[in-house]
From TrEMBL:
Name of this chain's protein: Reverse transcriptase
PANTHER family: PROTEIN CBG26694, PROTEIN NYNRIN-LIKE
Matching InterPro entries: DNA/RNA_pol_sf, Integrase_cat-core, Integrase_H2C2, Retrovirus_Pol_polyprotein, Rev_trsase/Diguanyl_cyclase, RNaseH-like_sf, RNaseH_sf, RT_dom
Native species: Iris pallida (Sweet iris)
Molecular function via GO: aspartic-type endopeptidase activity; DNA binding; DNA-directed DNA polymerase activity; endonuclease activity; metal ion binding; RNA-directed DNA polymerase activity
Xref: SUPFAM superfamilies: DNA/RNA polymerases, Ribonuclease H-like
Domain Reverse transcriptase stretches: 17-196
Origin: domain of life: Eukaryota
GO terms for biological process, alphabetical: DNA integration; DNA recombination; proteolysis
Amino acid sequence: MNKEELVELNKQIKELLSKGFIQPSASPWGAPVLIVKKKDSTLRLVIDYRALNEVTIKNKYPLPRIDQLFDQLGEARVFSKIDLRSGYHQVKVKKEDIPKTAFRTRYGHYEFLVMPFGLTNAPAIFMDLMNRIFYQYLDKFVIVFIDDILVYSKSEEEHERHLRIVLQTLREEQLYAKLSKCEFWLDQIPFLGHIVSGEGISVDPKKVEAVKSWPTPKSVAEIRSFLGLAGYYRRFVENFSRIAEPLTRLTRKEEKFNWTEKCQAAFDELKERLITAPILALPSGSGGYEIYSDASGKGLGCVLMQHGRVIAYASRQLKTHERNYPTHDLELAAVVFALKLWRHYLYGERIKIYTDHKSLKYVFTQKEINMRQRRWLELLKDFDMELTYHPGKANKVADALSRRPEAFFMNTPKEILEDLRKMGIEVIRPLTDGMWQNLQVQSSLIDRIKEAQQNDSKLQKMWKQTEEGLQTGIRKHPDGSLRFGDRLCVPSGDLRTEVMSEAHNSQYSIHPGSTKMYKDLRQTFWWHGMKREVARFVSRCLVCQQVKAEHQRTAGLLQPLPIPEWKWEHLTMDFVTGLPRTQRGNNAIWVIVDRLTKSARFLPFRVGQSTEVLAEMYMRQIVSQHGVPVSIVSDRDTRFTSHFWKSLQESLGTKLKFSSAYHPQTDGQSERTIQTLEDMLRACTLDFRGAWDDHLHLVEFSYNNSYHDSIKMAPFEALYGRKCRSPVCWTDVGERQLLGPELVTQTVDIIKAIRSHLQAAQDRQKMWADKHRRILEFQPGEHVFLKISPTKGTIRFRTRGKLSPRYIGPFDILEKVGNVSYRLALPPALEGVHNVFHVSQLRRYVPDTSHILDHSEITIGPTLRIEQRPVGILDRRDKILRNRVIPLVRVAWSRDSPGDSTWEKEEDMRKQYPYLFPKTGQ
């Protein structure tokens, strides 16, 4: 060591002694020390523990993969980074192991009391400690890599809570951070050589500087160093292995070091790709993925995408034996490579794989396959995937765009149009006639595209290659514009957005789907990646997300209720309302069904009777005859959710189970029984006349004494051991059949048979239902739209009501409830709506910075229907009938244009909406 290094060594030893990190030693162990210059030119003490590490039993505790750590960030927008102060020195060494850490210096022999840097097991030990400390928060809002802690949140409010938890945990564990290296409350932050932000992840510019200034390698070791740094960021570089192939070839033992022009070109291209690396999206965890795979004689390549954004690139060179594969197997190898590499993203998700090899579409139906293909097919079957042929040409170009309609000018005075056109000005009309004060003028779209083409480096490069004789597909049109075939090339930037917006949002296109919009636009426009960009634009359209129906299988697999153990312990309940009022005053039926035997009770009552009266009926008719049930499944009728009813059942020990909001399928048993009941009542009133409640007891008897398919017998037979006698079937039943131990055995056997039949019926029902359903899952914090029933007001239900939005929102998901339901954060305007919804009522929200969300525009009632209230009376008239005259008023409704007004009865409107009719004289 030189004099400067000895001074630094003496200084650092004194500092370690004063902190109590080391002590004088008499150990037989003794590692040498080095002084190393750091990036900031300061000196650091390094102990060479290589000899100790060779005889140390390795700790196999896994360190996390960097890319998998970043995958947890999802939709995070606020970040803080905490760097522990000399993290290893905050962990004590076991007393018996202290002598092993000894090191020798010119100023004495010392040993560590805390864990030193340089030990082979130090990273694993510290990683284990940090994981145990933050176990319950990992991948929720904390990721840890050794002594680096990243706290991430979706909002500033969340972030404050998360930071408090992390800092309090560090305080309790007596771990200390170095404030100068910590960063808090940032929207983008450097972490592990990357820049993390709400947009995704990108390469840290400081690391790129090292690549940019990297000198041309002069040896195999220098090539390996460069490839090591570049390979750390290979997910950002498309076709990394193909580009690097000339360099990696030089690292093989049999190759002589010969730096050729190809090597220099590969070296320069890798540096350029890393300097201009894109921002990669982070996977959202659901919503499906797309993979674009390709293979060549040199290597395999693939791209992973979600919601139209690149998540990662991957590639590798072919192994020696793979160079002999036929084209079909190479293309299949590329697919297998992608599925293995990204299995942690893809398993359990819907995947669309695009390949430019047509025969792969039929890979699952081939009759003759070799052993290699057989192994690969077994792997493919583990994934929910769809192979799609995507021609190589289409793969490179991507896809299309829109025609600008001339119809904008149809109502503009001809002479003004002519004057404007002579000036080279294009007119953009407002959508409402007569609003000339809002008239805008701007340069012709084609002229602006032509002007922008001159400043687009990619288009100019392609045109230059065309002039040099290369086939790029670009040509110059007589008007001076660049064309791809006959299609106008649109440069990147706002012009593309303008073209897509015109093709999608104008009154002459009215929100077409992505395929139709692309096919329209491709006739006129072209740019690289057009089809994908059009699809992304349409998927993010807020109007489309709110009004277009989902043409997919119903979301959420069937979740059957558990089969009861005994009779009348588990019930379902519902009400049939809206029936004609009888002389007894009844106009509704309370339907109560035993879920095991399917026996039912039909109790007539009058709508408006208090919950106390219904409770008394329940005690007399149900509890006194069948006992207290264990549980009751019902919808969220106010009679079932009232405080009195809940208190009564709580005192009886009965558990109430409510269906999720606006999902009546939860109580499917009652719904199906009501259908049968209504059909039988209709038949009775037609055949026997009289009020419906005159026949209700006969309907109940008939229903319970009739064969039920799911239990393979009649409900009475399941309940009493035999069917009841009826005039149709005078079964000879004597005391011999009613008494004795045989009846007990028979009853037990019947219950076993019923439960077996119910299980079989449930299995059949679930198997059939799940064929027409799909798995759809969300994570807390994601945003979703809520399906609504588009009706208006309380008087009318006209065609225009059906044209209201199908979905409202988006709303945050608070938590998952059960297997197929979610709790939403609803705004105050929806406080009367229960906030747990079945997954089939939800639709994933695709965000975009252009969206302006306003929940105040639509009023929703507690039945989850749009309530559009009348805002004014436009006109009056009388409807003259033979015996009377009915006064009508023409009503304007909220959110409608005047042309969508309706004629309503004035009497009804006065009762419902008196504010429309101000009293005279006021």
